[in-house]
């Protein structure tokens, strides 16, 4: 589980440095973006290896309905993570679509995994998403709903969300637990 903790430290540090120390971040300039990218990739590698190597220590038993809720929340979460890159009308109605998607991703995985490693990793990333939203709201309060976007953008958003979910679910069933109830 040490690698999961290392992954969380790298992830939180890389993502929150800009928010917590904006003056220092500005002083480092563009080269710092490369360092952040390396830290994020290293954190993902640490998560993957740390989770695969972690001893299974059961903490709670996931509910029987958790797998169904997981799939629904994952579909919504994956869509929200990509929402900021679309011309959907939904884009301007949600301040933190990617962070909200990440929080849903975290909750959805906690619904189907009750082991200590999962709680540490998914819970740690979910808490990071919520803390980041609070920091952004506190430091950048001037946000307003936007009416931009088109119906065509909405249709593309839904189609891409379903396609991304299907691709991730297929990869997940090949590499890890099958996300679909049998």
Automatic annotation (TrEMBL):
Membrane topology of this protein: Multi-pass membrane protein
Cellular component aspect of the GO annotation: membrane
Compartment list: Membrane
Keywords: Membrane, Transmembrane, Transmembrane helix
Pfam families attached to this UniProt entry: NnrU
Predominant place of localization: membrane
Statement: the UniProt record of this protein carries the keyword Transmembrane helix: yes
Domain of life: Bacteria
Residue span, NnrU domain: 4-176
TM spans (from-to): 32-51, 72-90, 110-136, 157-175
Name of the protein: Membrane protein
Species assigned in the record: Actibacterium mucosum KCTC 23349
